[in-house]
């Protein structure tokens, strides 16, 4: 802040701007005048600052209003002029229209806008849950239904929708309870469907208890078809059956189709037992597909939820296989193939049907010249995971070393469909074909030799051999 000009102050109050030493002006009067001017200047400066600040605030507010108006204008262009009113009922109605058109993402955005304006209306949450179901976000749909019921405990449509969701998740008791609270929304067929799924889940549990994996696979698939198509319990049983039937590739594919649910939310919605069982199966699927670090992490999370011996045994096995893989790989890179082979074998003692450890042991045996045993390991790995490329390549190379050219070419042909840009594979295929052709030529010469002048001497014996 700049102070006032003293000369101007003096002249304004009719005092000389230069001091006459012979006739000095009253000192106190000058001091008082200067103080008054200072206060006036300070107030004026403060007012100026406040005025500028207010002006900037008004300008900023005006820009925000303009932007908001532009947004509503854009919404009006997309959704119609009714949205310009910015009423929550308008957003709900527009959301309903978008829902009917199958444009669920837009419907969800509109319902969310309505909720933002008034979060005390139950139907906004219920309607949004319907759109979330359309997008396959079933857990979010459950949460919205629960909020709607908390706002209005007698809201029949929300109860019915929540009952249907719980049925899909295999939570039959909860489904039945909400169906009973849905007034006339739930009909006899809905209640019969719940009872059918309930009975089927009991059948699945019995099959699992007796370790009848073929039956468990069949019955869990039937439970899925009855309506429990998003049940973590059903998915876990189906995948567990496939793992124990040594159909690991199908197990992994099946698990990829399972709903993705946060562990904490799953434990709250479906209970600790269902969630833990799902996690232990997930850990075993990750092991079977070579995702060792993730398997260890998931198994650890399961043991935190349920510190039972059954869960701990899965965690121990998971850690043992992950350790064997990591240590074996380290030793293999140091060209200590025999030692690496032993480490992989130790891991396979915990799980004899792990395709990754089998493939790695086959690599060691190939380096050690144990081609027959390497072929055996690769064949087991491929039975578990038919599209696993590494053991197929290794088996082709071993068969080439054993001069089984036809067997080698069969594997190479399958590989060539997925590895067209791999020059090394192309070279090995060409070499195998050349060797097979040479072998055919030699076989033809042998037959011609036997059909020639030596035919009487050898009879038909050598030809039969």
Automatic annotation (TrEMBL):
TPR repeats (start-end): 88-121, 276-309
Calcium in keyword set: no
GO cellular component entries: cytoplasm
Keywords: TPR repeat
Annotated SMART domains: TPR (SM00028)
Name under which the protein is recorded: Tetratricopeptide-like helical
